Amino acid sequence: MKIAQIAPFEESVPPKKYGGTERIIFHLAEELTKKGHNVTLFATGNSKTSAKLLPIFPKSLRLTKVGQNFKAREAYKLIGLAKVIEILLKENFDIIHNHIGWRFLPFIKILKTKVVTTLHGPLDIDYQRFIYQKFPNSHYISISKNQREPLPKLNFAGNVYNGIDVKSFPFKEKTGNYLAFLGRMSPEKGPLEAIKIAKKTKLKLIMAAKIDIVDKEYFSKKIKPLIDNRMIKFIGEIEHKKKVQLLQNAKALLAPINWREPFGLFLIESMACGTPVIAFNKGSIPEIINDGETGFVVKNIDEAVKSLKEIDQISRRDCREWVEENFTSEKMANSYEKIYNKVLKYK
Q1: Which of 17, 35, 292, 309 is most deeply buried (CB count within 10 A of its CB)?
Q2: DSSP strand E in 247-300: where?
Q3: Does 14 sit behind a cis peptide bond, omega within 30 degrees of 0 on the bond before it?
Q4: Across the strands, what pairs with 141?
Q5: What are the pLDDT digits (tens) for 20-69?
Q6: What is the rounded CA–CA span in Å between residue 216 and residue 25?
Q7: Domain architecture of the chain: domains with CATH
């Protein structure tokens, strides 16, 4: 099968540090190539892949000067999309896999090739809901069942949970005595709540997170004043090796999210290392965490504090096996392959 994978332009594939969607695209392209498919990856030039790479920009937009300006970055996304469409009109693919969301949808009608769109973000954002409802018959793929709830009438071709290369997250039986926070310094990810939980339990909290343009003010006003580099430590945005070390040695990962989390790759990365997760019951969380077995799904800060008293009862080996059974890159690629074949049978 000749497959086009269309990646976002903000990060490389795979990303050097933060970037869940780009990491998923990398694993998918690798697995599909390994299975013998002819895969072409439309991404930035600093990407690395076993597939054929078609660079849309020389490097990730976030690493460029223009990428530091939010409006300019949005304009460049459209410029990149135009390049992608131009190539797709000339090339013959069996199927196009869109990972850049709603921006791609208006152009599907001019393409002769079948297109599937994985929805990597939440569907309860007003302007995105409006756009997706304009294209209800496109072939969509959700990454959790909960993700579908705001727009249940979209034409869902299937649900595919994200998967990781479990081997790149070595399991560790022995636990450390600190809590971890991983992801973005955004209100929806709950860094402030994580700090409050840590302070109530008097456990050290190590926070590793990306600070995007839109979150700089929030970080400066709400989070930075609470960082004392003793009990609350911020180590910035980290690369893979340091991420594994952070997760492996943590007592638990805190995910006190304040939004409808569509999936949360950091959750399965933590459990793969053997580290249980304590997360607020929002979005896909109950689908990803096996409550009471691989962590605790809680309602608020007080419940999170209470669950930490029982965290040592969680088997770290069970956390690892849960990921091996449900969230591997191989399982993910097999599921996508089935959906491609299903969509290609439609007239």
Answers
A1: 17
A2: 252-255, 277-280, 295-298
A3: yes
A4: 118, 158
A5: 899 999 999 999 999 999 999 999 999 999 999 999 999 988 878 777 77
A6: 27
A7: 2-163+328-344 (3.40.50.2000), 166-326 (3.40.50.2000)
